[in-house]
Design goal:
alpha/beta, Alkaline Phosphatase, subunit A, 3-stranded antiparallel beta sheet, 13 strands
């Protein structure tokens, strides 16, 4: 009887350890397995191999090496946050992780994590605890299990995003060697418009164009699709490296470059300031720089705190003078109308209407930019008057956001200003893992971008990226650009090949990922 109980215990423990090991190794890997490889099938196969190997180990007769066990523990602890990150967001882009920890204070990170991501974090802690118990159980009963732990440690290190980041940062590939940032990052304004136009930019958090194809969200997305169909719309807008989170999407669309990290130095050796960085990419000429020099008043309203992700530093260093975020709202006004990131969208739009009215009363042309929050993962942040039905809140969030946008655009058109107005609506990036992730991942995912203006509706189906939005906006405002280029972006109205058309999606990833020469060029000081 005791032997049967021992065998069952060993069977259960080996199963838990194999699954736990796969969780931390597989989910902390730098890249998702795509194409012909089915992630779930290969995960189960590897778990089965590890399970069988554990059972085949002989019974313990000699002491195990404590150094091998300690090595495994250290590697496991280092893998834990990376595994949790991928489990939550579906990605392990270390550039984004570095910028996240550089630009957010510990209190902000704790608040967001406890409010929105408590379930996956608690699950990860449970798995971690079970793994420790199972490992020490097997160390006490199986010979050579310490060698198995050492082999697992080596595998974890090999596939770690940190290892891949270090390799990509230190070893230039052929594409990077043949890419000269000094000549590739180029911008020359050849003509300025005779008549200045206002510009409104509406960033919709994680609200990608793919939602128009999903059965669960097609109806909710319909108002946005109706607006896009009557505008100049990019229907094939890819997401590329360095544009896959909020501040990166804003930088890419307003500066025509990916947001590459400036290495570990800015994360671990900077002075801890509330604002993070006072300047982002100071040597670049971005949208705000061009328009502020031409007499525009630039305003930005944000549902979250502007100090997160150095948004305040970026905007202030590139022409914006009127900045508004959740930190500027009195607590009594926020009461009942807030979420983990800041204020709910209904409250944000109230301030947007007020800001539009103020800017409209002034003689100067203006830029009014804003960023919503409602459609943020993992399962949206709904206004009090935005009811939700079903297992996912995301369709309701999309529907309510679409109504806000539609109503605001109607208000702008019904209350014209001295200058005609172009309205740009776009997603800041593709949605990270959320309650509709399975449906999204079965589709060809594309970002949202359209310009509502007085031009004839046009669908632009060429392969484009967020980098190409900046020169497209400038040309739509009436600016002339040499070769239609602004930094690394190329106007969608210009026939010259953009980066995606020149290299292809996969090679653009190889070109930008770990490109230290480009990163140094983008982050150089103004006088360099």
């Amino acid at each position: 009887m005791n032997k049967i109980i021992t065998r069952i215990s060993l069977f259960v423990v080996a199963t838990f350890f194999a699954v736990g090991t796969l969780y931390f190794g597989f989910f902390s890997a730098p890249y998702q397995l795509t194409g012909f490889i089915n992630e779930k099938k290969i995960a189960l196969f590897l778990a089965a191999i590890l399970f069988i190997a554990i059972l085949l180990l002989p019974r313990k007769t000699k002491p195990n090496s404590k150094y091998k066990t300690i090595c495994w523990l250290v590697v496991l602890l280092l893998s834990f946050p990376l595994a949790v990150t991928r489990f939550i967001f579906g990605t392990n882009d270390l550039d984004a992780i570095l910028i996240f920890f550089r630009d957010n204070q510990a209190q902000d990170i704790t608040t967001i994590a406890s409010d929105s991501f408590s379930t996956p974090i608690i699950l990860s802690v449970i798995v971690f605890t079970l793994m420790l118990f199972c490992a020490f159980y097997l160390l006490a009963r199986k010979q050579h299990f310490d060698n198995a732990l050492l082999s697992i440690s080596a595998l974890f290190i090999l596939i770690s995003p940190v290892t891949q980041f270090a390799i990509n940062s230190q070893i230039e590939n052929e594409l990077q060697l043949n890419f000269d940032p000094q000549t590739e990052v180029s911008m020359n304004i050849t003509k300025r418009p005779d008549t200045q136009r206002n510009l409104i930019i509406i960033y919709l958090e994680s609200l990608e164009r793919t939602y128009t194809d999903l059965q669960a969200t097609k109806s909710a997305y319909a108002p946005l699709q109706s607006l896009a169909s009557n505008s100049t719309e990019a229907t094939n807008l890819h997401q590329i490296f360095g544009t896959n989170y909020t501040i990166a999407g804003i930088v890419a669309s307003q500066c025509g470059v990916p947001l590459l990290s400036n290495g570990l130095r800015d994360v671990f050796f900077r002075k801890q300031t509330k604002q993070s960085l006072e300047k982002l990419l100071p040597s670049l000429t971005c949208l705000g720089d061009v328009l502020s020099q031409d007499g525009y008043t630039l305003s930005y309203l944000n549902g979250a705190d502007l100090n997160r992700f150095s948004k305040r530093g970026f905007l202030k260093s590139h022409g914006y003078t009127r900045l508004f975020g959740s930190g500027d709202v009195a607590p009594e006004i926020m009461n009942g109308r807030s979420n983990a990131f800041g204020m709910n969208d209904a409250l944000l739009f109230e301030y947007v209407y007020d800001e539009y009215d103020h800017l409209s009363s002034q003689p100067a042309p203006f830029v009014l930019s804003m960023l919503t929050i409602a459609t943020h993962g993992p399962d949206a942040f709904l206004d009090n008057n935005c009811p939700s039905t079903g297992n996912s809140k995301m369709p309701s969030a999309i529907a309510c956001t679409a109504k806000h946008v539609d109503a605001f655009i109607s208000y702008v058109r019904e209350n014209p200003t001295k200058h005609d107005t172009d309205i740009v609506v776009l997603s800041d990036h593709l949605a990270l893992r959320n309650t509709l992730a399975d449906a999204l991942n079965t589709s060809e995912r594309r970002n949202l971008f359209f310009i509502d203006s007085d031009t004839n509706p046009e669908a632009i189906d060429r392969s484009t990226s967020m980098l190409d939005i900046y020169p497209t906006i400038l040309e739509n405002l009436g600016y002339g650009l040499e070769n239609g280029q602004a930094n690394l972006g190329h106007s969608m109205f210009n026939s010259r090949q953009n980066l995606l058309e020149r290299y292809g999606v996969d090679d653009v990833e190889r070109l930008l990922n770990g490109n230290q020469a480009l990163s140094k060029h983008l982050w150089r000081a103004v006088d360099q």
